[in-house]
């Protein structure tokens, strides 16, 4: 898993790439998110366009991020989810919890 | 620098050389003054013997140094094979080095492969203040190429610096240091770090010191390799133990025999992978006329997943015995998992109850791959329900009732079945699973489960990591 991040207006966008499969790799992501929250970021978009593969532990990573942000009074939205992730979200019914959008742009705009 | 404890051959040789030169000068002096030929000869003999003695002593000095080195290496070698405490070993190596090349301070600096920075791993002869200073400098590590240490690692060459204040590469850390010598530490053909010695005197080291120092650097490399290997072995062993515990937990929770529940024919099989995932299936007898059917998949692998599965199973079995609605059972199980596990640890599960008197299946699906009923040309997905279990505090679970008909085949599975991939990366998929169920519809439930699992195994390529595989079948006769 590789990550980069950028600021778009008052929204913090994290781009995830590669395989999301939890484990020690996800520590980097969680640290990145926690630092952002500590800096005062509350509106976060995860751009999942570059994610090739995700297993159940990877879903756990998204759930954990969602919970961390919500507990901090913030909100997480998902942008550019692939067909595969979309079907995972539908099966697990996480689609009823996560706010998903076709593009990262849409996800950012939905905060306005 | 020779050591003070060893016999100082160099000093004796120097005296003898002086004596030889003195005798020669005296002889020349006598020759000019045309002195006594006998006296002259005597002086010439003395000078020759003295010079010979000096040369011999030089040879002896070399021999003694070699002997001392060999003894030291032998001693370290013995210690290497008897202890695996890396700090203790490095301490022994660095202290033994003093017998061969004297120093006031020494350090082992290693490249951190993750950060690609050089870190001070072992130091001797550093005062508290110097240590702090060094730690400040090396806290973030020093990039390869910076400082004398960095130069040695980058170039893979040794360096003798007679006066550190005259060398622009030098990064000062230890106040008293005046001269330094450093050799690369090489493991295989990889540059892993640098072994440094420092002296409080200018010209503390000579090129002669390089040879023994290189030998010590290779000892350090061997020590690090061994320690690394040992650490890996311990980790591997621990993981194997953990896996075997996890596997035992998992297996102990799966049905060992299939309950008789005529006119229904029930069967299930689980094939755990080497990594041990958290697949689960169960048949829970509730009353004479009702049987619970469960299948679940715990996020993650290893002992964590096995323990979560244990909690889930205990909670489900407990709640299912009370006369609750299925939606209530799932809510209670969810609440229990939510309170006892972090949100990223969740379970996807399907739970249903078959009432054989009225031929009704009542179920709710908590985020699990939908089981399906094969009826004639249809495959009816059982996807009514709610969120995965354990991640959120108060999800609602819808439940559904399905009238079962004679000839219906219910298939419950985990993603290990549908996501098994062939060499082209193609997934087995639900359509193929439905088609297999139809193809084997005349077989008994257990035979059908066996045949389908065999088909999945044939389909699956070793190229991809494999997940636990669980399938259970209920036939309505």
Report what the structure shows.
The complex is a heterodimer of chains A (112) and B (477). Chain A contains four helices and five strands, in the order E-E-H-E-H-E-H-E-H. By secondary structure, chain A is an alpha/beta fold. Chain A has one domain: 2-Layer Sandwich (Transcription Regulator spoIIAA). In chain A, helix 1 (26-38) links the parallel strand 2 and strand 3 (43-54). The mean pLDDT of chain A is 91. Chain B has three domains: 1-82; 83-241, GAF domain (Beta-Lactamase); 253-476, PPM-type phosphatase domain (Phosphatase 2c, domain 1). Chain B has eleven helices and 17 strands. Chain B has helices at 9-32, 37-82, 86-100, 128-138, 147-155, 210-252, 302-321, 326-340, 415-418, 429-439, 445-459; strands spanning 105-112, 117-124, 142-143, 159-161, 179-187, 190-199, 264-271, 278-285, 290-298, 347-355, 360-366, 372-375, 378-381, 385-386, 400-403, 409-413, 469-476. In chain B, the strands form three sheets. Chain B has a six-stranded antiparallel β-sheet, with helices on both faces. Chain B is rod-shaped and about 140 Å long.
Notable characteristics:
heterodimer, A: 112 residues, alpha/beta, Transcription Regulator spoIIAA, five-stranded mixed β-sheet, 4 helices, 33% strand, globular, B: 477 residues, alpha+beta, Beta-Lactamase, Phosphatase 2c, domain 1, 3 domains, six-stranded antiparallel β-sheet, six-stranded mixed β-sheet, 11 helices, rod-shaped, disordered N terminus
């Amino acid at each position: 898993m590789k990550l980069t991040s950028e600021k778009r207006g008052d929204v913090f966008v994290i781009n995830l790439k590669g395989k999301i499969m939890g484990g020690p790799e996800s520590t980097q992501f969680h640290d990145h998110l926690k630092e952002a929250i500590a800096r005062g970021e509350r509106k976060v978009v995860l751009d999942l366009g570059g994610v090739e593969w995700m297993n159940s532990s990877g879903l756990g990573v998204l759930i954990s991020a969602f919970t961390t942000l919500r507990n901090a009074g913030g909100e997480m939205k998902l942008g550019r989810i692939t067909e595969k992730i979309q079907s995972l979200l539908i099966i697990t019914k996480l689609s009823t919890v996560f706010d998903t959008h076709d593009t990262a742009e849409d996800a950012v705009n939905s905060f306005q | 620098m020779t050591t003070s404890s060893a016999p100082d051959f160099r000093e004796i040789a120097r005296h003898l050389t002086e004596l030889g030169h003195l005798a020669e000068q005296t002889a020349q002096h006598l020759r000019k003054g045309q002195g006594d030929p006998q006296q002259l000869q005597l002086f010439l003999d003395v000078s020759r013997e003295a010079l010979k003695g000096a040369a011999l002593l030089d040879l002896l000095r070399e021999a003694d140094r070699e002997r001392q080195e060999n003894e030291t290496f032998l001693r370290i070698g013995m210690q290497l094979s008897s202890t695996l405490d890396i700090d203790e070993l490095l301490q022994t190596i660095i202290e033994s080095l003093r017998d061969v090349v004297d120093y006031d301070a020494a350090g082992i600096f290693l490249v951190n492969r993750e950060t690609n920075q050089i870190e001070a791993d072992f130091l001797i002869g550093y005062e508290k203040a110097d240590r702090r200073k060094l730690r400040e400098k090396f806290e973030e590590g020093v990039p390869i190429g910076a400082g004398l240490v960095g130069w040695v690692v980058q170039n893979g060459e040794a360096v003798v610096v007679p006066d550190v204040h005259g060398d622009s590469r030098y990064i000062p850390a230890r106040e008293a240091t005046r001269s330094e010598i450093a050799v690369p530490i090489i493991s295989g053909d990889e540059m892993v770090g640098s072994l440094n010695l420092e002296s409080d005197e200018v010209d503390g080291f000579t090129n002669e010191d390089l040879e023994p120092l290189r030998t010590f650097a290779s000892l350090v490399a061997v020590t690090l390799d061994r320690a690394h290997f040992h650490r890996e072995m311990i980790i591997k062993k621990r993981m194997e133990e953990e896996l075997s515990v996890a596997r035992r937990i998992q297996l102990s929770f799966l049905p060992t025999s299939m309950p008789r529940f005529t006119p229904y024919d029930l069967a299930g099989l689980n094939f755990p992978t080497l990594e041990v995932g958290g697949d689960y299936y169960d048949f829970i007898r509730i009353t004479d006329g009702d049987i619970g059917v469960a299948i679940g998949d715990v996020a993650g692998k290893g002992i964590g997943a096995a323990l979560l599965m244990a909690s889930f199973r205990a909670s489900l079995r407990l709640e299912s015995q009370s006369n609750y609605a299925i939606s209530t059972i799932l809510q209670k199980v969810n609440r229990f998992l939510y309170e006892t596990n972090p949100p990223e640890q969740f379970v996807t599960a399907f739970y249903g109850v078959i009432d054989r008197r009225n031929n009704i299946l009542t179920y709710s699906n908590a985020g699990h791959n939908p089981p399906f009923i094969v009826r004639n040309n249809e495959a009816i997905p059982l996807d009514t329900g709610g969120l995965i279990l354990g991640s959120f505090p108060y999800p609602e679970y819808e439940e559904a009732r399905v009238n079962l008909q004679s000839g219906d085949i219910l298939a419950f599975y985990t993603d290990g079945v549908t996501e098994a991939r062939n060499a082209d990366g193609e997934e087995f998929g639900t359509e193929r699973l439905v088609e297999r169920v139809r193809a084997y519809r005349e077989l008994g439930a257990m035979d059908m489960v066996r045949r389908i699992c065999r088909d999945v195994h044939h389909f699956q390529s070793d190229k991809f990591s494999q997940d636990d595989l669980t399938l259970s079948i209920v036939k309505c006769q």
